[in-house]
Amino acid sequence: MDKTLVEEYRGGALECVHSGHICGVSISGAVKYAVGDVESLTYLRSSGKPFQAIPVIKHGADRKFGLSDKETAIMIGSHRAETFHVEALESMLTKIGVGEEALVCHPTYPLSVPASEAMLRAQKPKRSIYHNCSGKHLGILALCKTMGYPTEGYFEPDHPAQIEIVDTLAYLSECPREHIHIGTDGCGFPVFAIPLKHLATAFLKLACPEVIEDLEIRSAVIRITALMNEHYEMIAGSDRICSSLLMDPNIVAKGGAKGVYCFGLKKEKLGFALKVMDGSEDEWPIITASILEQIGYSNQETIDRMYQLTPTDITNDNKKIIGTNKAVFTLETI
């Protein structure tokens, strides 16, 4: 059963309750921390992007097409189509040699409000590269051209690129492939659901690649996580939780739609996955801050950045404090 994670109060009265599950695993693979049900089946959504990028890096598609580090990093990102994101994506189209029409992700306006408003003022049309998953799609198209796979249907579950992705996730999460539930994501890609503890295990291995026995996958993970920390702005964007957490070189983090968030801690050798069951993302920073506080995390600046994103004080449009956010869960030590 899910547990209450965050309560919101307005004028002293409880207004909203956000329930869910949290799982933390140690380097031994055992569950160390738990709130709610660590077996809860959870769709990765965009938290799966680091794993979807592994075959791209493993087979050298980034090197084949001369992609810069920032261009490679955006393959892992859920970008907001800010100017620097769009510049990287347009460069990738040219280097990989594909047209924008090759992308299955639907044309849209940027998720960044300032960027979207600028497009509307300039009367510019929607574009597929503005979709927050377009970097991932370009990465898989680069993989297809590197391996000689067909680019048509690159998003279908039976495409060889997608088969390798799910095999990679099964390996790193220690979830048997036959137990991975496959649906369709908003961008048109296959999306995977696994028990929360297996998702935490996968992020533990992103943070601690030394436990990965497959040397090719280990090497790809080391490069991917280095890019996530070095070019954190490409993984999300301005004032977003992923980019804020990835400023800390000790953390590997990625979230997804509908309330799923994951991170691994390198020095502490821990992997965490959480799911807010109402699908809200607003609570991620305050939940993450509470997890870090409860385990005694030493980098207070990282915790402070989380509270800047989701303050404990709720303010109205006039910046008047009218309520409070409270993380109310306690990590159960297993």
TrEMBL record:
It comes from the Bacteria. InterPro entries: Asparaginase_II. It holds the Pfam family Asparaginase_II. This is Asparaginase.
